[in-house]
Amino acid sequence: MTDTALARRLQERLGDQLLAPVGARHDTTEIWVGPGQLTSVMTTLHDDPDLRFELLADLAGVDTGGVLQVVYHLWSPLSPDWLRVICDGLPREDPRLPSVTFLWNGAEWAEREAWDMFGLIFEGNRDLRRIYMPPDYESFPLRKDFLMPDDASRSPGLGVRPMEEALPPADPARVPVLRSSAGAGSLWSGTGTQVVGPGPATPAISAGGDA
Amino acid sequence: MTAEPRVRSLDDPEILVHSPAAIIDAVPPYPPRTEREAEFYTLADGEMFINLGPQHPSTHGVLRVVLKLDGERVVDLDPVLGYLHRGVEKICENGDWHHAISNCDPLEYIASMFSEAMPVLVAEKLLDLDVPRRAEYIRVLAWELNRISSHALFIGWLALDLGGLTPILYGFIERDEIVEMLAALTGQKLLFNYLRIGGVNGDLNHEFLSRLGDWMGHAAKRIEDQMRLMNENEIFVGRTRGLGVLTRETALRTCVTGPPLRATGVPYDVRRAHPYSVYPELEFDIPTRTEGDSYARYLLHLEEIRQSIHIIDQVLHQMPDGPVMAKLPRLLRVPPGRAWVAFESPRGQYGAYGISDGTDQPFRLRIHDPSYFTLQAVGELVPGHLVADTMAIMASLDPIMGGIDK
Q1: Does residue A199 form part of some domain?
Q2: What is the number of domains present in chain A?
Q3: List of chain B residues whose C-beta atoms are within 8 Å of the C-beta of residue A199
């Protein structure tokens, strides 16, 4: 039930900029691009009157275990399909790609989240700072080499996922762990500054009040 | 703190005074890291910062907003998130697909029947699973009931943020009846944990149906009462009409979905744009309005409650017999692949992007929450308005912090 006309049109317009032929499964058409072609591909998708992908439904970072990806989901009034754009091949050490905030400024926070969680650097985003984690936090929690202290996947009952086994301890630099947010030399440890506690002692304003 | 007085007095705008210490605390104690942060935390003459939250009741959760003010007018604002952050995407990766259901429950805690549907629908799409039709109808019934309870509360909160106490009481009466009804069905009042991969946890029972029958008898009248109470109320209309106007272009650019987008005239509702479950078999309208202001969003919520009642009516008449769970192995190994699902929650398009590597755990489960994007749009809407209207505009966009902070 995929939209073959859309796949044909995409192949025609963008075929030479894609990493792989246009794919489709379920109700989603899928294209793969490299970070170099992302800006022109997204601009075409957004502006071309035959494509008109005017709503950015989602922007997600993905850690494949090797390279990182950024996955966009787009909606167009002209097609019954979702369009998935996968920006592939971002190296772990320095994952840089252009921002899409020039088309959708709503992507600003989504890119901030992807930076916060995966360390993806979106060039052109004017506000790329952490959004969930504290500002002096150093790790990227959703990367596959970030292990949780009580990693449930390593308990015998649930089986072992090779992806998330602990790295050998010989190389501690490669194992990001939770670091204290107010250690010596931390941005928040100076005198006269405000240190925010681990969680505001909230009376659960809405969580209780709304129930 | 600078030696010169630089903040305009609230008593007399002609006089510049020193900032109180609490206002200075809003400024982060480190140098700006981005262009935008440098721009925001630089004060022009007469401007000052006000720190709102994270424990302010009108922020609808635990949200801190730094407001930059010139007198009573908001110049700019910087929301600070993360107070409710659990890292639910990481938690989901570390449990199996069934665990993800209850982990996603508290995201949209006003309407958790929707947020718990995310891992369910993704897994079903990856499994290419046919869900029994009775289960689909029960899901739609539960979703629409939950949508009504959420919308009823929205109307109450909106009025409460404008200073009116009565509507929230009516909102809670409505919500209470639905919550009791769903508690009879699911065993829970708030975090239902009712949907299952392949169906639902249990069939309809007598208590649920009898409560539902009672409620259906007066549901439509409640909406009329609500409209009589608020639609023509001079104070309410005066403080919502023409305020927080979102245009079609801004809404699309800021990725806003749900009632705020439909209030600008875009008939985008996932139930029709990308039909899922049994919505194609049901008859209902997608109400839209063109004004795009807070009042239009309020009216749209009322109209959506009516449409939901209409859907529930049809569901009860068309409900087929049969099983409510597909036959699936207890240890569910989801075939490798990628899937994106989206569905319409009371606040807009909920989305989930799941990747499976063939094990019983999600390799990645991306959660797209509409509130995250509507809260971002607050930054576009509020500048230029009075501080008192900030909360009204935010309430009319209806963000839920549980989903924003994930």
Answers
A1: no
A2: 1
A3: 83
